[in-house]
TrEMBL record, chains A, B:
Keywords from the named record: Flavoprotein, FMN, Monooxygenase, Oxidoreductase
GO molecular function, one term: oxidoreductase activity, acting on paired donors, with incorporation or reduction of molecular oxygen
Domain of life: Bacteria
UniProt-annotated binding residues for FMN: D58, T104, H154, Y158, S229, S230
Segments forming domain Luciferase-like: 32-389
Family classification: Belongs to the NtaA/SnaA/DszA monooxygenase family.
The protein's name in its UniProt record: FMN-dependent oxidoreductase (Nitrilotriacetate monooxygenase family)
Amino acid sequence: MTKQISFNLFEMNTVGHISHGLWVHPSNTRHQFNDLDFWIAEAKLLEEGLFDSVFLADVIGTYDGYRAGPETALREAVQIPSNDPLLVIPAMASVTSKLGFAATFSTTYEPPFAFARRASTLDHLTKGRFGWNIVTSYLPNAARNFSLDDEVAHDDRYAIAEEYLDVLYKLWEGSWDDDAVVRDRDNHVYTDPSKVRYINHVGEHYKVAGPHLSEPSLQRTPVLFQAGSSARGKAFAARHAEGVFVGGTTLESYAKNIADIRQLAEENGRGRDHVKTFASAVIVVDKDRESALAKAEEYKRLSRAEGYLAHAGGGGIDLAAYPKDALIADILAAENRAGRDNSPENRRYAPGATVGEALERLTNFDQSAFYVAGSPTEVADAIENWVATTDLDGFNLRQFLTPGSAEDFIEYVIPELQRRGLYRTAYGESTLRERLFGAGQQRLFDEHPGARYRGGAHLNDAALPNDAAQDAAAAELGERAS
Amino acid sequence: MTKQISFNLFEMNTVGHISHGLWVHPSNTRHQFNDLDFWIAEAKLLEEGLFDSVFLADVIGTYDGYRAGPETALREAVQIPSNDPLLVIPAMASVTSKLGFAATFSTTYEPPFAFARRASTLDHLTKGRFGWNIVTSYLPNAARNFSLDDEVAHDDRYAIAEEYLDVLYKLWEGSWDDDAVVRDRDNHVYTDPSKVRYINHVGEHYKVAGPHLSEPSLQRTPVLFQAGSSARGKAFAARHAEGVFVGGTTLESYAKNIADIRQLAEENGRGRDHVKTFASAVIVVDKDRESALAKAEEYKRLSRAEGYLAHAGGGGIDLAAYPKDALIADILAAENRAGRDNSPENRRYAPGATVGEALERLTNFDQSAFYVAGSPTEVADAIENWVATTDLDGFNLRQFLTPGSAEDFIEYVIPELQRRGLYRTAYGESTLRERLFGAGQQRLFDEHPGARYRGGAHLNDAALPNDAAQDAAAAELGERAS
């Protein structure tokens, strides 16, 4: 079976997202991220390259764990300065008609009613091209920016996230019927009031009356992405996510995690193929192997270990504060952080590893299971093998240089993947969900938990999902996966 | 003295903002508000017309007070469906270089840290063209969308707003120095960490650590608009606002209120001319008087009393539920709502009026003190007289039709105002604050309370302003104004 592979550009509204140190490269335009022109040029480039979407990461705090302060993150431009990710999408959408937009937003600190309307607004403005990367946040500094003394405990964040999603589904799916807006000029009826309703959500964390303020957009619920790597995170993803960023260290562990997610999705009453799986791809390509390896050497030379250490120290451990032979697992236990669910870009602590190994891994981009540097043929071979071995559906392409990394991929890799039938040669349908799941699938699958509120059904039921059931499922998966 | 008059287009990301019923007009494009093309076309038109800015109102709830439900608001499209106002700005900014953007956002329900970054992002993306209309919200349904049972009491909302502004000023003005971002490629220093700091705000309502995530934008603090009409609201405006929407019923009462605001600004240590004053202008113009009057008749014929009643009932009183000779003041007292501070578009209850008079006033757009229908000359005469009599600096132009009302104004009124030296013939500086206050004034005036945090000064002071002092000032103004 030949399946076409999805590619998103991995982005963030900041200078240094995950390739720390590279901002100094003379061809890198990252420092122009404050300008609309930067984003407009990128959108045009990606649509030219037939990318699935631009995938915008985000954090709402500073990485100030390393050396007990924000100095290194500031000096190395590690995700600071940074701007809001949602606000670049309308301008990028205005110069494209097919490119998707997935943006990160946390369920922990801001009220669901406001986010529901922002997401619906973006789905309207993009005509159904909006996706949401659901995170629960993990930076201690983020908590302190939102009136808390420290992070909400990991499992509590997921309980809040469950209720948050429940509120959003009610607003997006249940509050307005498809045919509510009638625009009957003769009778002066814009909306048929019998087809719009309050949601009257009352839960442990939120009370939300509704009705939703936005009329139904093409997708209603944006395409839902998530990256849980803990047992609880995986259970959440298997229940809600339509695109999952899978964790792993080897092709085999990715394959196992992907099989687990599909299995758990099925146990949640969803199709195995209702979840698309993604990972970060670290690709250095040029016209031939020699040029690509030289390019990779240049990227390594410009990489800044201090930047990576600040990044790692923000969400987890200050690796500089421990001896190199200390076990990560012991440090996590001592800091009572074993349950932390780090962000996709920060999931670097293999529990059996030593500090020295973790340092090696996080400061060297070639340690990824999805790293390749080589000629177009070699890169395409690697990608083909990754997908065949793991059952992955697609990748977030890491950028070393903007726009260089995307340009290289478009110039060298896409034509080779197209020759092999592994990459689209033209866009089909324009909504993001249809791109992932095929023509006609603008809306959530009927089996998705958000779909139960359609037509206003179940709005008065007790909150779902049942936490106990959720915890049991998570524990079961945890046993299988560990 | 001839001063040039500011004009903003009064807008909202919705079908029916304040001209209820007009959506049925065949040339009205309001029903296309979900589309980017609608906003892009409007931005181009307004920049062609040399408008100061587009001014986006907002509410975060539904008008469901009238007839005890949202049915009328839905049927008549009274500010529902509606979308987020901030998200149309980036696309409008991408096709303009001078037009300003002022958007409404409430201080009551969402955390200040997130809004601080969104505002900075917009000021970056627009290159200093962003303004913020500060509201504290007034719809009971809005409160119920944000986990509350009913509105926060009026004076408590202002206390929250004071602290909210204090947090924002610390983030916008105090957290980063102007020269913090150095981009020293040779030494791998993006930001000089010694020039960025935590704000460590600890107040009654918020704890916010910082640092701000965005680097300084051209204006830092967006241009601050506000529309307080209560004594407390006026005191707030005199302290914080750079553009004030003034209340009134006659030209004389406007003149008095404007003089009061300027006086109170001066008592707050600000210049009398550091506050620009605005009101809504209701203008129907055509090539000659006869055509304009015919147009006004058509607008009246299409106006829907039910829409206006739903609008009025959302924030205040269900006028349909009282006899026509009941006094508004008695109803307000009975409902314990005397302290309510309604939004600019909902300030329709003259306390001495009866229900019948209020009905008459709110369903008839020609009851405004700033209403004129006539030839270009007649309209320009009226505007000139309004400004001369009241000392107003500018107007928000009410739309009956989109794009018709703005097109009419550009075609018929602007050339006449230009001939009289009352309207610019070209844009000067491109930041919004410079447009209002002159070249070089990109930042807050030094006397503005936000300016005190520059360079990180005063971050550790006790919260300002002192509530008791604020209350005393408000009471004093209240006595003078009533």
